Amino acid sequence: MSSQEKTPEGDLPAVEGVDYDAIEAMLGERVLGRESHLNAEGFVVRPDEVEETLEILRNEAGFDHLSMLTAQDYPDRYESIYHLKKYDDPTQEVSVVVPTDPENPTSESAASVYKTAEWHEREAYDLVGVEYENHPDLRRILLPETWQGHPLSGDYDQDKPQLVTLQEHVNPLAESQEDSESDTMFLNIGPHHPATHGVLHVKTVLDGEQVADVEPDIGYLHRCEEQMCQNGTYRHQIMPYPDRWDYASAGLLNEWAYARVAEDLNDIEVPEYAQIIRTMSAELCRIASHMLALGTFCLDIYGDFTAIFMYAMRDREKVQNLLEDLTGQRMMFNYFRLGGVVWDLPEPREEFFGKIRDFLDDLPETLEEYHDLITGNEIFQKRTIDTGVLTPEKAKQYGCTGPVARGSGVDYDLRRDDPYGYYDELDWDVVTEDGCDNFARLLVRMREVEESAKIISQCVDLLEDWPEDERDIQANVPRTLKPDPDTEVYRAVEGAKGELGIYIRSDGTDKPGRFKIRSPCFNNLHSLEEMAEGEYVPDLVAALGSLDVILGEVDR
């Protein structure tokens, strides 16, 4: 369907809770046309009216969450899609589609409306080549500034040699440092430093001992995951890739993100039994992820390797053993399949359930020990309470989700608010803290481990009593999947770090025409500049650790 065509109202999908006709009336003549995406209506607007359109949708319609920006190159146009939601109800979604001239792909920036658009638009410019007018700092974000061309643009010459000059890394404060009376200093933290949690380069400007400005420099681990997924078939070749986004511990959560969007795209119904297995295994991954976050954070704060870090690794290993029994792997699981899971629970089932129950029975005492060692520790409290402050309003502006948002009192969790799997059938609570600081984010993760344990325990009870002749692990999925061309969908799950979403546009073949990943770590890391300003360097290190970023997912 052409972006300029209006869809007859009778063909529009009914989305509960969203009056798209009222939204169109609200936007008025700004709307050039409507597109029917599987998750939401898309309103096509002119590239010079993006800011006004988004302001109306945020201020008058309540769409305060910019999940992601997808840019793509068509033969006749470039296109930007702003995926909007509401923090109060993420099932209410709308897309703003902005087509631009292929000869001059220029569009108005959304950065003045949603702070998180700054990084998303920089990525779209870097990889696709769309330029955003009035952007406060439009330059490359994943590739070096000296890179020639835009890799996801149709006219990109991949054989052209690339040169990165030393001038790329010149001290940006060189001139100001010529003043002998200046207290301003430029400090590089990373990209190879234990406190940066991977290959992250933090460009830091200090005014005396305080942080005046922070710029996370990413892209050192950019692996073209989206492009690799576009080259793989829906049915068989894409599923192994998600394990490698957040490679530390959230593999099954990543797999579920792809499974959910691909199953919606291809109208696949997952058996109830498989949904319970998915829910149980995903929460085991969440515990493993939070244990790693706990151990490394404490290592950042007061360098306790022998006790707290190793205790956290010990308990993480217990979870990894359970996941290995289930999937055969310790990290790159490749256990989910479209329509279910690859195989049933390990035999003997009673022994596997016994291992899970033993782990869950030991968990309360383990967490009490952690609270004695960590949250009751005076050094830890001094380093984390009232440092790295992120208010709820700022968290929403940066598009933060997961424990980072919930640590700022933002009550947002897709497991409850946009139910999938078996979560809506179970008894558990969403954890929030109002501290808005580094301490609150740690508390959220520790309390979420308890909630995950409650979910796992209920799943085990259900699986134990499930009739043997009804244990369907997969739906009947065609060998080759070819969704209708120009079908578009964005779906997300609650990953260990927050909202992990994927946008897919089909082109009528067995491979996606466009595959875009919404990384929670990407958005959360952007907020570091807000959390660190005015703090000291040790507080900057604590704030970065509290975000629990995995650079493989940030860069993708």
TrEMBL record:
One of its GO terms (molecular function) is oxidoreductase activity, acting on NAD(P)H. Residues 306-556 form the NADH-quinone oxidoreductase subunit D domain. It is found in: Cell membrane. Signal peptide: none annotated. NDH-1 is composed of 13 different subunits. Subunits NuoB, CD, E, F, and G constitute the peripheral sector of the complex. In the C-terminal section; belongs to the complex I 49 kDa subunit family. This is NADH-quinone oxidoreductase subunit D. It comes from Halorussus gelatinilyticus.
